[in-house]
Amino acid sequence: MMWRKNGNKRYFTRMGTRKKVHTFVRVKPTDDFAHEMIKYGDDNKSIDIHLKKDTRRGVVNNQQTDWSFKLDGVLHNASQDLVYETVAKDVVAQALDGYNGTIMCYGQTGAGKTYTMTGTTENYKHRGILPRALQQVFRMIEERPTHAITVRVSYLEIYNESLFDLLSTLPYVGPSVTPMTIVENPQGVFIKGLSVHLTSQEEDAFSLLFEGETNRIIASHTMNKNSSRSHCIFTIYVEAHSRTLSDEKYITSKINLVDLAGSERLGKSGSEGRVLKEATYINKSLSFLEQAIIALGDQKREHIPFRQCKLTHALKDSLGGNCNMVLLTNIYGEAAQLEETLSSLRFASRMKLVTTEPAINEKYDAERMVKNLEKELALLKQELAIHDSLANRTLVNYDPMDEIQIAEINSQVRRYLEGTLDEIDIINLRQIQEVFNQFRVVLSQQEQEVESALRRKYTLIDKNDFAAISAVQKAGLVDVDGHLVGEPDGQGFGLGVTPFSAKPGKKSKSKKTFKEQLSSSARKEGASSPVSGKELDVSTSKTQLTPSSKEGDVKDMTIREQETSSLEPLPSDSPKEELRPPRPSTPPPKPVAFEDFKNERGSEINRIFKENKSILNERRKRASETTQRINAIKREMDVTKEALNFQKSLREKQGEYENKGLMIIDEEEFLLILKLKDLKKQYRTEYQDLRDLRAEIQYCQHLVDQCRHRLLTEFDIWYNESFFIPEDLQVALKPGGSIRPGMVPVSRIMSLGEDAQDKFSQLQQVVLPEGPDSVAFYNAKVKTEQKHNYLKTMMGLQQAHRK
User: Fold this and answer.
1) Is this structure's pTM higher than 0.90?
2) What are the binding residues for ATP?
């Protein structure tokens, strides 16, 4: 057993016994099978290969002519049903019990890997391992009503050592801005940026599978017309919670279905150009995969080269990890491909040496764990109460203390410190902890009282505050040696700076305090500053008014968003439309009709659109003004920095003065420092206002675009219904009718009868040759084909429109 922790989640893995990888071989059917060279064992678990010696090598010929490979099964002339029952059924079944599984197809190009893994979508009986696995998962979920099981899927493609999401073409996913990367954590390896999709029914899973298959990269060469040019990994994620038990433990698992690209001999495939480059990447990654398999099979090897390529890195969990691993090797049965067949069988025999340790993946639900702990706490409190009553103890409260009890303990601590209370009675552990906590509170309060008393009597200055010390020295509040003068309090000298009124012989100076000196000097500088004087007053008033205006803007925009989102098209039989003139024989131009629409049926949407547009323009104007103020402050900051640098360089040339390690600066440089500090504060305030305005502009732009889209959509509906639908069908579009305006396209309204697609959907439920189990498969296939046909048609129309 092994615990793993990540953040607030805990993972529990129950380690199993080590087992070797299962390897199977599937021979591609052919009319030209080499019976003399390839022979199967009686138990269908071994293959013997025999080659005739090459007489051209002479009499002394040590060429190996016989090979024997022991496997877990040989599938020759086997159907797709038999292949799945033999290879994948047990792996998928154990996945719902918490065991990870991996099924990998390996072999030469054109040997039937993709057909074995995916099959064909034209015939339900010829479907491959992947759709059958999805079907088995959902069938087993129906057989387990005591568990709440969720299924998610992802589809990864590795093409030329780059990662791609085959499901990124879905409208709610979209292409990723940043490239996908492989990340490792204590729970294993995962692909950052890969989309994972929740599927609640079998048809949705098939739709995602077919969507990914249409995005795969294929090419044609002499050995395969539809050769896969990339490695693909389809992953099924399963998570099961018990409905009956209140246990916080639940299980998770994943099934990796790997379709590897085929190895190629360039001399046989005749690849050129882009296909040649793809073949180079494929052979290189398969070579690294074989190196990793050899290292895993060697028990003495400590380092496994998983990171040599993206394929081995992504399959690190599957290769020798805690999962059920199955390798299905596809080979040719022809004599011409015997060398490649031997290479594939060697790979299978090396994979058989790899051992895995399947384990159940258990996790703990934090919310359910808290509930169980609360129940256990209540039971423990009841047991304590029974124990106290049996021991004749007074009633002890084990609940957290309320405010009244805390206040009482605080009073006891104060009386104990004052000496009026000799001792504090101890009741339970909570009270002891609270007593110590109140001691800390009382101590903190006394420290604050002492500090406030000192501040009322003295002016405290931080020794590390360079600007304040320089200003005090300029004001003449220190002696020649730089010592601070204390105020006599009858017993000695107090630490701090004496008040101005207590200095003998300096009454005239004491009337002008240090703050007044700074304010007077600031007024002197204010004459030349573009952001002082009136502008400072304006910024102050603006700061006071900003919260209320922003709250009003947010409320206003929220109301407008609700108006925009909740707008419904007006009824088609409104009084304005009843009184309108008869329909013209020819439809009016769209620009003219659009103006009429904005004044009649679309007047409300047009009003909201104009209001949102005016708000957007006002925000842009305010942002422009704020930007100008920021630029002015920035220019003033640059001027102040230059003056400050000049003063520093002048001080360095004239010689620096130090007093006990403190640098002494003149008044002009000190005022420049204060001025720069104020300018930076104004700059930050204005910049924050600009950021808020930009966020509001973006939000207003979204509302304007939404209103514009709604206005144009309602206009198209109104235009088609007003000038193209026959008048005898207008009755169906009234509020009392069965059709809502805009709900059905014009082409469907023109023929309200049942179309061919509806008839087909009803008919396939009855006459499908494979029975009702194939309905989800064919429905997903039809939907995927309809989607891609629609996209092709739209792209063709766009290209024709551009021409």
Assistant:
1) no
2) 107-114
